[in-house]
């Protein structure tokens, strides 16, 4: 393709509202154009990337035996009422009434519609397993859309849904999708990790996120460099201390810590390691009556080591806290501890309450905690001697880098990631709600076992850029770059030799299957080079009169600091070789 | 592809709500599945056709220099308020409020958004002409969705928009799209006509519809078999009678026609040709005040020959009627004619009114019309002698087959068509409303001249089927068939020879670039053949033990009544030859 037949629009400066680098670079490179909050036009340059991403997904989904169909954007509310999601989902579900005042939604996903198809179409065990997918426009009315197309409102997603005879079959389908996703992300040329993820309300242990590695990612990914272990920090187990708890070595002492209300400040004041302190977190749960009014509240004390962070997902799975919890109010705290926050601890409580200790805390001795008196902490605290053993010992903290891996194969490392894919075993959550059954070999109706599998198509663009860019712009992997190579002739309109060589090389590369663009815009070399570095095309060939006299052109990979002079006759093969490397 | 990796779901009977044959056959062939009124799932078999249609459109649009982008489905109301369409459009425009109560619409087309892009991105005359297109989901909240995906609510459309420096440039862009559309429809393999169409409120003479020929079409297409002339009947000119009006030959006579209120009944009663009668049509126009209340109504009498139909589009272009007209009420009629409808005529009016005669009527003599008295008509009526010449003579009727062609090159024929494409010169309608200007060579802002060009992607499927089907099912053109060929092995699971031959032929055809499906479902031959005839695959190869023993297979084109025995070794080349023929 020639630039004159295409549309290129670059900006020197990113718009002020572009917060993250991928958003800034996509705007500057003319890939997207804002239409409204969280709603973007995909400009020609960006659409090319989307189409390449879609093509790779489609090929691998088909290879894995999934069948493509297309479910509507505007969906009748009835099906969403069957599963209860029409009422349960918050305002992120965009609801709309048609001219007859009937309710519809703009789809954020398609579990209901695909389950409706399955219960009508998949009637016999002989038709199972089956996996349907579509690549379709989605809408989620985010309260605060941001990060460009990374958290937009309208976006493109590939969502697949598997239907199986039983849980064992569903596990096979799940593994098939997991393997397909690995092939997809390998072909994208991105650094990623498949990590075990929380399964939320559905339970079970089959859920993996595909995280693109990027320092700016919102998710923390835990992995073991010496084994296969990888999980979202929400899920990663902090294993119990290997050593048994040591015997008390110090006497309990109440120590003044005026104005020192954090573990770090207390440790510094006392000249002790932060690892010897214990942090008190006070939560509350509420019992509601039928009308939703609070009948009774219970207060809970959770203890984690001073350098540890409480893991809210893990806490949400504890007995008594599963149904939902909140942080206690100051009034509740003062009522139970007789003290304001900052100096709380498990000794000398004003009212009895449940004490849940993290496994690390349960293994500590001679530790420091608040004395339930302003400006005082206890030191030399020991379980059993100074206070009763905790009501419950559990894993309630985030792991730290250096913690032992749960698989016993090494120690954990942590990096940041951007979630771009998710495979999820659904079980019978939707098939039960919608009575999606098939007839088994005995003619008996059975609920279908389901899985769902998503890839954020448009989000891939943002994640790829967050992972790979430099001061000059985007650095695309060759497989999803808008163009794999660009020819930059200097003086295309002036020099017949340059024009002839550029046109011939263009034709040669196209014939060799290289997705190449010939920049015939007549821009100055500096501006032209800057555009293509910003847009991030992997391979650039510069043709000039001077070089051509010597039979050479300049070849430069987007990651290279300088160009190489290579013979014109060899450059097509070189470019092709580099792109398939 | 093998059937076992795909999804095939056929029905013996069409659902009761499927009114037209294309809807019935698409449902029976498992191409679409109803989700709600006018909203369909595109099942795998139907989606394959859509993708092929899209691919052809995309290739030819790109070849014509148009650039693909993607504009959102959910669009902010602000732009639609700029052009006034947010308020002007009826309930077919689906309006939605987001969580912040801001107004949005679900796009039916994208003039506003693309003009917004153009006014920001196309700043210099050097960037023009430019043509942007997208293939995107559309929504029109039809009052009465019907005919399956032919008049659905959610559908896929390709819409392109051209931007030019001036009207001359816009005409070149228009012609480029017109030519591209011809290539597109040629490649679809459909019988179609590009017909001149009405330009509605915008005016100008550049508008063509691409009509797929089908007896069931909603549009009447007028064409001249001996010339290039083709137009929608809405637009087709009924030329003035060549011969001058003949002198009166009869005396005016009031004749009893008891109970005969139609021209046909009167002609029969009087033993006269219908062509000697004149039909009176009474219209009214209203003048409104600022609040929209009617201040004054004017009544008009329109006269067309008894066998002619009034053309509402032509009437809407007459002086005095341009701003909108309606049929007169019975009260208005009685007030002006002193008679109830059925016996009206231009002689002896109670109140004076404007009389508009069709050109044919103005050329008639000795004609018959109502006497403005119940159960009486006048015969032998003559202009000038019995009544004044009409206030206005104009072309206000639909042409009839056999009428002279407006280009003077023959006589007109009429066929039915389904509108699937439309090219339209917009002028500055949108660029003016949205102030979309560019700087000309002198640095002066100028309004861009626009054109818009649509193809109903999903509608193509319905139109193709309406055009081409038989009692057994759909007959797809090869270029857009879900599969170009199908292999039907008899005993695939039983006979190693059949399986080996079918697998080898499948591989051979795929390698030759034929989009072939191997039916490995193990259906009985009769059911298998019926499925593929219903689905409409162009070429079918049946492999059986008996045939293979003689080295032959059966080859049958979908339009053929019987199969031919052909050598197995030659069948791949034969299939490929037939498909590219």
Automatic annotation (TrEMBL), chains A, B:
Q: Is the DNA damage keyword given for this protein?
A: no
Q: Which CDD domains match?
A: ProRS-INS, ProRS_anticodon_short, ProRS_core_prok
Q: Which Pfam families match?
A: HGTP_anticodon (PF03129), tRNA-synt_2b (PF00587), tRNA_edit (PF04073)
List where in the cell it is found.
Cytoplasm
Q: Which reaction does it catalyse?
A: tRNA(Pro) + L-proline + ATP = L-prolyl-tRNA(Pro) + AMP + diphosphate
Name the EC number(s). Answer: 6.1.1.15
Give start-end of the signal peptide.
none
Q: Which residues form the Aminoacyl-transfer RNA synthetases class-II family profile domain?
A: 33-477
Q: Tell me one GO biological process term.
A: prolyl-tRNA aminoacylation
Q: What remark about domains does the record contain?
A: Consists of three domains: the N-terminal catalytic domain, the editing domain and the C-terminal anticodon-binding domain.
Family classification: Belongs to the class-II aminoacyl-tRNA synthetase family. ProS type 1 subfamily.
Outline what the protein does. Answer: Catalyzes the attachment of proline to tRNA(Pro) in a two-step reaction: proline is first activated by ATP to form Pro-AMP and then transferred to the acceptor end of tRNA(Pro). As ProRS can inadvertently accommodate and process non-cognate amino acids such as alanine and cysteine, to avoid such errors it has two additional distinct editing activities against alanine. One activity is designated as 'pretransfer' editing and involves the tRNA(Pro)-independent hydrolysis of activated Ala-AMP.
- Quaternary arrangement and interactors, per the entry? Homodimer.
The cross-references to PANTHER family, in alphabetical order and at most eight, read: MITOCHONDRIAL RIBOSOME PROTEIN L39/PROLYL-TRNA LIGASE FAMILY MEMBER (PTHR42753), PROLINE--TRNA LIGASE (PTHR42753:SF2)
Q: What is this protein called?
A: Proline--tRNA ligase
Task: List the lineage, top down.
Answer: Bacteria, Pseudomonadati, Pseudomonadota, Betaproteobacteria, Burkholderiales
Gene name of the record: proS
